[in-house]
What we know:
Blueprint: H1 2-9, H2 31-45, H3 48-95, H4 99-107, H5 115-130, H6 136-156, H7 161-200, H8 205-219, H9 223-232, H10 241-254, H11 260-272, H12 276-287, H13 294-313
Amino acid sequence: MALAARLWRFLPLRRGAAPGPRLPAGTSGSRGHCGRCRFRGFEVMGNPGTFKRGLLLSALSYWGFETYQVISQAAVVHAAAKVEEILEQADYLYESGETEKLYQLLTQYKESEDAELLWRLARASRDVAQLSRTSEEEKKLLVYEALEYAKRALQKNESHFAAHKWYAICLSDVGDYEGIKAKIANAYIIKEHFEKAIELNPKDATSIHLMGIWCYTFAEMPWYQRRIAEMLFATPPSSTYEKALGYFHRAEQVDPNFYSKNLLLLGKTYLKLHNKKLAAFWLMKAKDYPAHTEEDKQIQTEAAQLLTSFSEKN
């Protein structure tokens, strides 16, 4: 009714309402002609049937628009609810170590524009690539596939710490196929994205851990790679074991025992720094860590081997 009232003010008056100005006699030809002019004008501007039809169409258009908005909002809510449901399933499978099932679930939505889905798909692709039963050819395809998903996640949401983290991880993996020059050049970009991930979420232990790995990697860079880096770049990337150790401890403080590899690397870093007592402490924790994934099992084996060789030397 409010709509009808607003429309009424802008419509012409009906016959019998306050009259408009009269034309002088004889103006615009004969009287009959002038009458016909007034009649045509009335049909267009003042006919009650025409007015009612116009009002009805306006009301229907308004109601149609309102209905469209309700349906559109419902579709958005439904889509959001569906994404939430997929994410819950994905996180459950990830926590359960169901790597291949997780990948199969998420690849159904590889055309998604949702950053939350895309970075999880990058992670799942990479995890399948890391499986021992994955062939070298398949691994390479999955590594590049993971990078593409991570890149899209970052494009969709540059403020998401996980998008930065997984883009850096996947870019690092690609370096294994593109040579030492590309690997060193990418190192600067990788570091920036890890630092951004930590800035966006300082409570994410894995981002801190990965920054530690970056430092550890460049602290133990072989001399020939360092020489190449010096030839290619004025200031090649470099770091120290002390910096790596600081990040590994910081990650452990944020989330104790969150990742078997962080325990292993604490042990290995202490070995590099010739602190055998603390090295043994952290390697023992890595060896005894409950194995939920294939990676955990590999870490258990490596930690046990290091402890054995460590004991034999003593």
